[in-house]
Amino acid sequence: MSFAQSSWFNDRISFRLPSVTFLNQKHTGDDDLGDMGLRIGGGHGHSKPCKACNDFRSWMQWNNLNAKNSIDSENKIKPKDGCPLDKDELGRSSWNLLHTMSVYYPEHPTTEEQSLMKNFIIGLARFYPCESCAKDFQADIKVDPPRTENRIALSEWFCRVHNRVNRKLGKPEFDCSKLYQRWLDGWPDGSCFDYQASLISMFIKPWC
């Protein structure tokens, strides 16, 4: 009997196969976007686990870091800077970009600008690295097409889409009336501009 087959080993070490998504990106049966006249499809396949498709814990479990006797050390492991993004990191970064883009979008966009933004959103739904996320986004676009006629319409559209994701994940929804405070102007209490207070204190402190 090998060491790995011994009862001592089995009692102390137990690995389980986590639910990990593999990179596919073929988008079989992608939805037709109807009035926009575009179909999201095609793509490439890959046989390795997709880090951008999985949260950090699932990814680490795939790498056999879920031994029962190492739970404490696993909880201390955090994503490192300079490494590929997991699904949660990718989502946060993407929403930061999209909300910021929307509040800087022109108030009176030209026809060309509206078309470019719509195509950008459609392209994002096609090429977003997390396949399950991409499919959800495709479904959202079909039911609620992008609103690109002006800044308010676009920023509120992204907020609605984000809140649908939040509801699905059991997260609190964002108050869309506060979009500009969160992503453009900063909060009324000035907390987003603490550097001003820091600069003032640099001049005041020597005199205290």
UniProtKB/TrEMBL annotation:
Catalyzed reactions: 2 R'C(R)SH + O2 = R'C(R)S-S(R)CR' + H2O2
Stored Gene3D superfamilies: ERV/ALR sulfhydryl oxidase domain
Protein keywords: Disulfide bond, FAD, Flavoprotein, Mitochondrion, Oxidoreductase
Cofactor(s) this protein requires: FAD
GO terms for cellular component: mitochondrial intermembrane space
One Pfam family cited in the UniProt record for this chain: Evr1_Alr
Taxonomic superkingdom: Eukaryota
GO molecular function: flavin adenine dinucleotide binding; flavin-dependent sulfhydryl oxidase activity
PROSITE patterns: ERV_ALR
Subcellular localization: Mitochondrion intermembrane space
Coarse class of the protein's main subcellular location: mitochondrion
Signal peptide start and end residues: none
EC number: 1.8.3.2
Domain ERV/ALR sulfhydryl oxidase: 83-183
SUPFAM superfamilies noted in UniProt: FAD-dependent thiol oxidase
Protein known as: Sulfhydryl oxidase
Protein's organism: Sarcoptes scabiei
